Sequence to fold (127 residues):
Amino acid sequence: MMKRTPALLALLVLSTVALPAFAQRLDAEVDCKPTKRDLVYDCRFVLKEVKSGRLVSGALLSIGADMPSMPMAHNVKPVRAAPGAAPGEYTARIELEMFGDWALKLNVRGPMRDVIVKKFSAREPDR
Fold:
């Protein structure tokens, strides 16, 4: 058992070196607009392949949110996005728990699989 440890360690090192080449295949443009209700946003997502810039249609996209400043305390159950009017476009309504900085987690399945994390700042409206 001990003789395999160096080989396993070497494999782990090689896999972490190679990981960045496969780490992210997709990116997303995110545009969220506040609704009339506080902390509720109508969001538009445009999925693209990182290398080619091609739009990704036909994907299953779900969006969740976590508040990095309060890990495990504030998170939002993922919602499924609907295909939008344009190729590569998806829409979803997201309801957050409080104002502040959030990490939107886009889970993409379908023609390609990926997880994209985007920063989103929910600011209290001026009244």
Remarks:
- Strands lie at 26-34, 40-49, 60-66, 75-80, 82-83, 89-95, 100-109, 114-122.
- The CA atoms of residues 85 and 91 lie 9 Å apart.
